[in-house]
Design a protein that fits this description.
The complex is a heterodimer of chains A (225) and B (554).
Chain A lengths: L19 H7 L6 H10 L11 H14 L13 H11 L2 H21 L11 H9 L9 H6 L8 H19 L11 H6 L32
Helix pairs in contact in A: 2-4, 3-4, 3-8, 4-8, 5-8
Chain B lengths: L13 E6 L3 H12 L4 E4 L14 H6 L12 E4 L7 E2 L26 H9 L14 H16 L26 H12 L4 E3 L38 H7 L3 E4 L3 E7 L5 E7 L5 E11 L5 H8 L24 E8 L12 E5 L7 H4 L5 E6 L4 H7 L10 H10 L3 E8 L8 E9 L5 E6 L4 H20 L4 E3 L39 E3 L14 H20 L6
Helix pairs in contact in B: 1-6, 1-12, 4-12, 5-11
Chain lengths: 225, 554
């Protein structure tokens, strides 16, 4: 029947540039990290890794820390996103595991293409890391830097491309999910966007409704239809 | 589930078996059981309750906890009949007791008089099935009022000069205004338009066993943990259970309506949770499975006597699908709106409900509403200006700045009924139970797209008048994803051009009734649930009268 389900998330976006098909095609990648990451994100001590090796986790953490960087406010690192994703991948579909297993080494190859002396993303400076990730922004388009500086050619790497997009979505989910469901450690993601932790609110809600005088009918003369 | 609930055996011939427990099924269950009939409701989804509802975005949006699951029930889509449909998720609906009314936004406009008689007023539209309803607004008015009072709708009577006549005010005042609503109201009035407090199926005052809205902000897509949203689950289903005559049987996936040699329905065959099949016998069958699953079930029920599907002598089962046109325009303002707090919509306007085709150059009309219906994650994916980077420092800065400063205007409009737009059975793809999957065929009428763009321009005007710092939208596009599922078993007096009569009885099978979005003849202006529920209350009266006169079982 009706209405508005994801009509405003799903459906809704159908009427806009972000098509419902896009959303539905991409959401599944986010899957159920939640429950299992719950304890991880809540725990005071870093939890044990279930899917990633310690080495992989360092790389994932480094990439997600460029997706939502730490500045004067917390970022993906403080939100414990790597643990959210780690637990997620043990509850996810096997497809997502494959995306990570195959994609991370490919991304490291891209690191070598952009910076011939480097082998690990995590070993680069933040500026260099951004430069590597920007190569994914425009699909298979050779980077100007590489072309101009005589570095190795940038090869199209669909596996790495797909991995980065999946990781980007997981990072956002792990940063912004309700902290009760694993991820968004200590609610830092909500602090960043200015969402209060409560689930019960009362009007007035914001700047524009705080001085609202109450409903006033339009003066009578009115224009009916 | 309550202790009062009876447990009928499948071999018990109950008075009615109702298929689907959503907006229409819930109300029919409540009304028919209250009227003394023995009723079994077969719902394909689980019987969740408030205690099962969470704010977990992953569980709801990615795992489809409340909705049809794309892996278990895959779909296909094509634009036109000559294409081979491709597998893709093509629709969403509620798959739990209460149906889509559990997770919907709860906008509850009545249809206006014009929606029932528009064909007579403006004349035919070539190439479409545009036609009048066999009933009019005044016949439905008492039932709209019944919905408002029995189910619980908040609003302010008389606030819109375009409102159709009503016999009673709303039972409770409107919900509080949000910042998006104030911005919308002030700008619209500057332009000489007539914004009004949104009628919502959400309680502004508590009712027995139900809290007033607590403004948690997880409305769209989520079930309400405090029963403030007037879903069938929180309202009609509970009332039906209390009669002691109605059994709600969840996890029961009906795949066939069985008929006897005389062409009468004898019951509904369904899979239980373990995929064992059963046949629930009944004197009459009422299908309220939604505008996609209702026609699918009729088509799945084809047999020697009804080779094209049950109740399909017209050939129109599944056709004339209407999805409603429209989309959103988004804007940002200088100060925090904090619109994540609260239900989605607090102001609406209907100045453009009826546009003059001579003046605008196309058929159509609609309404605008002021809303914010994002959750934090969905906002990060769909709420930022289109030029925003997708990651990094500037992405984070945009999230931090924009989340509280963003609102949307949703433009809701008409869709013309086209025979080719339809739900049908995919010839190849099967669902997890081995049944043919739903195939969506849809291509918007050009007027529907023109209307969308025209409405977007009005929303831009409004945001301009409101002093928005930034605003954006995308041109209206042909739809390929269905949420409003309307018109696929349309009501009419002529068995050649409709599937059900004004009593919701199928023209072909005397003891088979259909009531849900599929019954609609025109699309209305984008908010169909209120009308589906009014039709359900009316259908219950009609069916009760027929049963009492002995005209169903005879």
């Amino acid at each position: 029947m009706t209405s508005e389900f994801s009509r405003r998330t799903f459906l809704l976006r159908a009427g806009t540039g972000l098509s419902a098909a896009w959303v539905s095609a991409n959401w599944p990648a986010l899957l159920s990290a939640a429950k299992h990451a719950h304890h991880a994100a809540q725990a005071a001590q870093p939890p044990k890794l279930e899917f990633f090796t310690a080495e992989q986790a360092i790389e994932i953490d480094a990439i997600s820390a460029r997706i939502i960087p730490t500045d004067d406010m917390p970022g993906a690192r403080e939100a414990g996103v790597v643990y959210f994703i780690d637990r997620g991948l043990t509850t996810f579909s096997a497809d997502d595991q494959k995306t990570y297993r195959g994609g991370l080494p490919e991304l490291q190859s891209r690191v070598g293409e952009v910076f011939p002396n480097a082998t690990k993303f995590s070993a680069l400076t933040p500026e260099q890391q951004d430069e590597v990730l920007h190569t994914f922004d425009e699909l298979a388009k050779p980077s100007q830097t590489a072309a101009n500086s005589g570095q190795r050619a940038i090869r199209p790497r669909p596996g790495a491309q797909n991995f980065f997009e999946t990781l980007r979505q997981h990072t956002i989910a792990g940063f912004l999910i309700d902290p009760d469901y694993g991820g968004n450690h200590d609610g830092v993601g909500w602090k960043v966007i200015g969402r209060e932790r409560e689930h019960i609110f009362q009007a007035p809600f914001g700047y524009y409704d705080k001085d609202y005088p109450g409903w006033q009918p339009v003066a009578k003369e009115a224009d009916k239809k | 589930m309550t202790a009062d609930q009876p447990h009928y055996r499948t071999s018990d011939e109950v008075d009615f078996v109702i298929i689907g427990s959503g907006a229409a099924g819930g109300i029919l269950a409540k009304e028919l059981s209250t009227n003394g009939f023995r009723v079994v409701v077969l719902e394909q989804g689980p019987h969740l309750t408030e205690a099962d509802f969470t704010h977990n975005e992953i569980e709801i949006l990615a795992q489809d906890k409340l909705t049809n699951h794309p892996k278990l029930q895959p779909n296909t889509f094509r634009k036109t009949l000559d294409e081979k449909a491709k597998p893709q998720r093509a629709l969403v609906y509620g798959r739990c007791v209460g149906g889509t009314s559990v997770h919907f936004t709860a906008n509850f406009w009545r249809f206006h008089e014009i929606d029932f008689i528009e064909r007579s007023k403006i004349g035919p539209i070539a190439g479409t099935g545009f036609t009048d309803w066999p009933i009019n607004y005044s016949e439905l008015e008492p039932y709209y009022t019944k919905v408002e009072w029995e189910i619980g709708v908040s609003g302010l009577a008389g606030a819109s000069p375009f409102d159709p006549p009503r016999s009673k005010p709303y039972p409770m005042p409107p919900l509080p205004v949000k910042s998006s609503g104030v911005i919308f109201e002030r700008a619209a009035r500057k332009l000489g338009w007539h914004p009004f407090p949104a009628p919502m199926a959400i309680l502004s005052q508590p009712r027995p066993g139900r809290s007033a809205c607590i403004n948690c902000g997880f409305c769209l897509s989520f079930g309400c943990e405090v029963g403030a949203k007037s879903s069938s689950l929180a309202t009609a289903i509970r009332m039906a259970e209390r009669t002691g005559r109605c059994e709600i049987r969840p996890n029961s996936y009906v795949h066939r309506i069985e008929t006897d040699a005389s062409g009468r329905a004898v019951g509904a065959a369904y899979f239980d949770e373990k995929r064992n099949t059963h046949l629930q016998k009944a004197k009459a069958v009422v299908v309220c499975a939604n505008g996609a699953e209702t026609p699918r079930l009729l088509l799945l029920s084809a047999n020697k006597q009804f080779p094209n599907g049950l109740a399909n002598s017209s050939g129109l089962v599944g056709k004339y699908l209407m999805l409603n046109s429209g989309g959103v325009v988004t804007a940002q303002f200088e100060h925090p709106l904090n619109d994540y707090k609260g239900f989605a919509v607090s102001r609406v306007l209907h100045d453009f409900y009826e546009l003059d085709p001579q003046k605008v150059g196309f058929y159509g009309g609609g309404g605008l509403d002021a809303r914010f219906d994002f959750t934090p994650i969905s906002f990060a994916f769909g709420g930022l200006p289109p030029e925003t980077p997708h990651w990094g420092k500037d992405f984070k800065a945009a999230l931090a700045h924009d989340f509280n400063r963003t609102m949307e205007i949703f433009c809701h409009g008409t869709s013309l009924p086209l025979e080719n737009n339809s739900f049908s059975l995919d010839p190849d793809l099967k669902d997890a139970w081995g049944l043919p999957a739903l195939r969506l065929t849809y291509k918007d009428h050009p007027d529907d797209l023109k209307l969308g763009n025209w409405m977007f321009a009005r929303a831009h005007e409004l945001f301009e008048a409101a002093g928005a710092q930034k605003k954006w939208s995308f041109p209206a596009r042909e739809q390929q994803f269905a949420v409003h599922l309307l018109g696929t078993c349309r009501m009419g007096n002529d068995p050649k051009s409709s599937v059900i009569n004004p009593d919701h009885r199928t023209h072909d099978v005397k003891n088979l009734f259909l009531c849900d979005g599929s019954s609609l003849v025109t699309s209305g202006r984008g908010q169909p649930t209120m009308t589906i529920e009014a039709l359900a209350f009316r259908a219950a009266d009609r069916i009760t009268a027929l049963a009492k006169r002995g005209e169903i079982s005879a």
